[in-house]
Amino acid sequence: MRLVYISSPLRGDMERNIQRARDYCAYAASCGVIPLAPHTIFTQYLDDDLWVVGSTISSGMQEEIELAKKLYMPIFYVPEEQVREKVKIRQQDRLLGLDDCIEGSSKRGYEGQILVLKPEAYGSSMDLTADDSLWYARDGFGCTYGARGQAVYAENLLDGRYIHWERKDFYGIVKTESLAAWLADKPIRSEAAEAALEAAVQDLAPELEDGEGLEP
Questions:
Q1: Checking CA distances to 110, which of 10, 32, 129, 148 falls within 20 to 30 Å?
Q2: Statement: the pTM of the whole predicted model exceeds 0.90
């Protein structure tokens, strides 16, 4: 049988165009050929992660990134030097826990913080990994400690899912070192994570200056 490349639009209404491409593939198959449409393969089979490798992002790659965001697909940015040096990613699946949280942070404000979710919040039937541990708290009455309302609306740091949790579902605010280790294994691009790490560096700056001043 002949292998036929199906050329059809992707830009614009991506979801509708992908469905059209699938229809076109079905039509081609009915004509007795093997259809191949890359954008249908991307959404049908490559639905776990998207790895953006190298320092250059082409217009086609950007379209794939935007589509992955709509599908809540984790997107990892792997620089060329990491490939050359064979530094592996996606190796750590350990769920984060109470030890990964700042001590006493369960009594602090949660809005704008990266939180560690308790695994039992998902229910007992879920097969969980470190992907499910970190959430960025956006708003909700539960972000304020002691508030009557307990709702916390948070975004999964890895894939962007936005879910209503309760304050009791979280252990607390993640430690900087635990966040840094998580990001090293899962190189996403997150303004919230970058801001948290930058704030930690600024907090350490006075201590580092004092330490240098003590040296003979």
A1: 129
A2: no
